[in-house]
Design brief:
This protein has 198 residues and is mainly alpha-helical. Helix content is 37%, strand content 6%. The radius of gyration is 23 Å and the shape is elongated.
Length: 198
């Protein structure tokens, strides 16, 4: 059995892959790294049950946003996604990006795999676009089609109720029957029909 066979079923990260990234660094107990340096501290959400040995990287505590104490090392850590229940790794390098470059507080935890996070970001984008278009006084044909597509996507994601099918049909009805719009209209209508068959 290969060293990464255990991780074959894990959701892959587009940048870091799916298996652990071995660094050979494995601090295992609180100790002083150098005189005057803080104790070795690990994340509360990366306990010994999920922390992968020999994957540690050193943190830059001066860049962290913490309320109690800094974290001196990040480890690759096993997670179960709250969205799809799939297994994935919250990589040490990803943690460094979150906590040192993006400025996330250290108590922020990664509870969804990258696939579900991307899906949620897409849904949030569609919702914002729909709301922006909803407030346009006289939307043009392209904006009406965009609004219909956003509405269908939000129904598919269970953000909007299935009753919104009629709103999609109403929006499409307002778009003139023109060859330029024909393909998009047909695609949206096909998605509506599929939803109605559920």
């Amino acid at each position: 059995m290969g060293k990464n066979d255990e991780y074959q079923g894990f959701v892959a990260h587009p940048r870091y892959g799916r298996g652990p990234r071995v660094t050979g660094l494995n601090p295992t107990r609180p100790e002083y790294t150098k005189p005057g340096m803080p104790l070795v501290k690990f994340h509360w959400h990366s306990g010994s049950d999920c922390r992968i040995p020999n994957t540690a990287i050193v943190a830059d505590v001066s860049k962290q946003n913490f309320t109690t104490f800094p974290v001196t090392h990040y480890f690759d850590a096993k997670r179960t996604c709250q969205g799809c229940s799939g297994s994935f790794l919250f990589f040490a390098e990803e943690q460094r990006h979150w906590y040192e470059e993006l400025g996330f507080p250290l108590d922020a935890n990664c509870v969804r795999c990258v696939r579900c996070r991307k899906r949620e970001q897409g849904i949030a984008h569609k919702r914002q676009r729909y709301e922006d278009l909803f407030h346009v006084p006289n939307p043009n044909d392209e904006e009406l089609l965009d609004m219909a597509e956003c509405c269908v996507s939000l129904i598919e994601a269970s953000v909007f109720s299935p009753r919104q099918h009629e709103r999609v049909r109403m929006l499409l009805h307002r778009v003139p029957d023109h060859p330029r719009h024909s393909k998009r209209r047909q695609e949206v209508l096909a998605r509506v029909r599929k939803l109605e068959e559920r």
